[in-house]
Write a structure and sequence with these properties.
about 130 residues, TIM Barrel, 4 strands
């Protein structure tokens, strides 16, 4: 299940899937796999660190690379586990090539980059 999470630029508050709310879903939905878009909660990344990091769900990078501070982006990935991060771009809202360049410019190392760009998705989908 892929969920938009955090703020939504198209709608006004209250937002429907904030990190604290998503944490409740994760605890009660043990039979499935959850992907929280936008690194767990667009523009709610302090709450992502508080409520979601380390929980049993995936984060995707979509739309976050353009808005998150690099140190927080790195910290969330490291503390959540590189094996639970998926590369995403939120296309057509952002340019895929630009987001890939920003991701690769983080210089995370070939092993971590391969996990996030490829292997984690294969593992998630059992392929």
């Amino acid at each position: 299940m892929v969920l938009h999470s955090g703020e939504d630029l198209s709608f006004i508050p209250p937002y429907k899937c904030k990190p604290k709310d998503l944490a409740k879903l994760v605890k009660n939905f043990k039979s499935g796999k959850i992907i929280a878009a936008h690194m767990g909660g667009f523009r709610c990344w302090n709450d992502v660190e508080r409520f979601l990091v380390g929980e049993d769900l995936y984060f995707d990078t979509s739309y976050a690379l353009n808005y998150m501070k690099e140190d927080q982006f790195r910290r969330i990935m490291k503390n959540h586990g590189y094996n639970k991060i998926l590369f995403g771009t939120d296309s057509p809202w952002v340019d895929q090539q630009n987001d890939l360049k920003k991701f690769l410019d983080l210089n995370l190392g070939k092993d971590i980059e391969e996990k996030i760009l490829y292997t984690n998705g294969c593992n998630l989908l059992s392929i």
